[in-house]
Amino acid sequence: MRGQGGELSVPSHLRSLVASAWTFRWQVELDADARFDRLAGRLEQIGAAPALVDLARRASQDERRHAGLCAELARYYGESTPPVGHPRIQEIAPSGLLVRGQVLYEIVASCCIAETESVGVLTTLLGAAQGPRLRHILHELAQDEVGHSRLGWAHLASEHAQGTTAFLGPLIPSMLEGNSGPELFARAPPEQDDEALLEHGVLPRRLKLQVFRRALEDVIFPGLDHLGVDTIPARSWLAARVQRTPAECQG
Ligand SMILES: [Fe+2]
Ligand SMILES: [Fe+2]
To answer: Which of 117, 146, 163, 183 is most buried, judged by most C-beta within 10 A?
Structure first.
């Protein structure tokens, strides 16, 4: 649907939902900027390959640029973001791990899982989003997130070569908890399942669950298994979550 000037017009009942989705992503990108910046320092600290440290630094810059693009879209849909966001990064790794284990935990959670999920989301959106500017932005985000995901897989492979990845197996479910949230598996107001959201770069909730599962089952679980991380606990976590999800929410 286009307005008179060729711009995308959004149904009025979806406008605030679309605007707040882009505002939420703006904050996520700012958080990712700060997380990669911190990870670059920590990778250096544990003696990771300089190429990986550089990738983390570049990822931080990418995420800052992404935040600007998401803010542009939030404004387009009628919501303004503050001039400077406040990153909300927390320590996500269990405190009992040594620094090297904490870094691996954080990289697997944020790159192998979150960034790989993000690629799945953006690829799906690219198949349906309308408007040249929105498509350009989604394409730019997708291209960069592929690189950020690879950073995680490269670090995991390097740690696997030294035999230090098996401890992650029982910890993957808590990473998945952190990357999903209960609303993914629950009933939502009907507008959140409106297919028209896709044109504006927002995944309807039901599709979100499908994309989440597909990324796990097709890419993330096989990748983890291949690099010495037992995915039985994670697969059980997913099966239990899906079993508790109302059938009509599963797409
Ligand atoms: Fe990003
Ligand atoms: Fe990213």
So the answer is: 117
